Amino acid sequence: MPESAWSPSMPALRGPWFRLHARIAISVASALYVAVLLLTVFAGSPGDAYFLLYVFPIALLALTFGCRAGLAAGLVAVGLIVGWAVVRSVSFTATGWLAHAVPMVVLGVLLGRAADRMRSAEAARVEVEAAALLHREAVEINDLLVQGMAAARWSFQAGQIDAGLQILDETLTQAQELVSELIRRAGTRGRSHSVAGITGSRTANET
Fold first, then answer.
1. Which of 23, 20, 21 is nearest to 31 (CA)?
2. Do the domain assignments include residue 57?
3. Residues 107 and 131 in one domain
4. pTM of the model
């Protein structure tokens, strides 16, 4: 089984399709870039605002990969706008260039930062739920041991040595299974301590 930081029974990080399939998101964003570029170069006039359609690939990449990718996506859009202006021999004033470039970059950064914060919040939520699950399982193991030891003690006090030993063996075996399962699901490489070995030693000492 591959190493995993989370138990299979713990809640997994979930998200929209583009976060789960990053390569597809890159392909879709690339296709959108090309489509908008072709539209601005061959279909539109200099007065058209087709370049505003770049917000779609920018938003897709920013939400998929975060702030840095959003910034890069915005800069790519600015570069394509520059290419469009060169091909169509369109000139802008400094204010015009700012009006075209700044919104693209700002959009990518803001959406990327928001996506990063959402991922951090989701990871924190999953971590809290994982800790709560581990706590419940630890309580379950503790209750199993306490009840088993109490039952074995009553058997010993009643003079039923064999019954008490059997209860101890069953309790420790169940505890071993629970702990081993807990360690396996946590994805650790360490081997659980052999409760069966302790049981065998204790049985030998008792007899």
1. 23
2. yes
3. no
4. 0.60
